[in-house]
Specification:
The model has no long low-confidence stretch (mean pLDDT 93). The protein starts with 17 loop residues before the first helix and ends in a 7-residue tail after the last strand. By secondary structure, it is an alpha/beta fold. The chain has four helices and three strands. The protein is 36% helix and 10% strand. The chain has one domain: NAD(P)-binding Rossmann-like Domain (Rossmann fold), CATH 3.40.50.
């Protein structure tokens, strides 16, 4: 399971530094690429790779330009890699969380004034908890999902993925 994430809210592209953009891509995309590349020679048929995207891949946040675009890259990477390794019997899928209450939010991922209302705009009216993601990852890792590849599963509190 690949789940690294770097997210710092930034209101304007004019304020988004090349350093921040680069760090976000290296953490969110490059690390996933390197991990998949290193793991594949060791994975047998029946193995699964599970990447972590985000709802912002489909519904980008204006203050998360760099983060949103990395999560869209993860969706495309997941689907392309799934096609490459399907003949080896390896499945590649992704989970796309919606607003989940993690340290990412309070460490700069959300502007401080937005923290109290974080996740309140979902149909369920609250942010999710990390434990609410676990069953989807377990399913995708299990043989019960042996006919599932190149898919993205949303855990979004009711906001649908296209």
């Amino acid at each position: 399971m690949n789940v690294a994430g770097h997210q710092i809210a930034c209101e304007s592209i004019a304020d988004l530094t090349t350093e921040q953009f680069d760090e976000t891509y290296k953490t969110n995309v490059y690390a996933m690429f390197w991990l998949c590349k290193a793991a594949l020679p060791h994975l047998p048929a029946g193995a699964a790779i599970i990447n972590t995207a985000s709802i912002v891949a489909y519904q980008p946040s204006k203050q998360l330009l760099d983060y949103s675009s990395t999560k869209a890259a993860i969706v495309a990477f997941t689907k392309a890699l799934a096609k490459q390794v399907a003949e080896k019997g390896i499945r590649v899928n992704a989970v796309a969380p919606g607003p989940i209450w993690t340290p990412l939010q309070s460490s700069g991922g959300q502007p401080p004034e937005k923290i109290p209302e974080f996740g309140g705009n979902t149909p369920l009216g609250r942010p999710g908890q990390p434990a609410e993601l676990a069953p989807v990852y377990v399913f995708l890792a299990s043989q019960e999902s042996s006919y599932v590849t190149a898919e993205v599963y949303g855990v979004t509190g009711g906001h649908h993925l296209p």
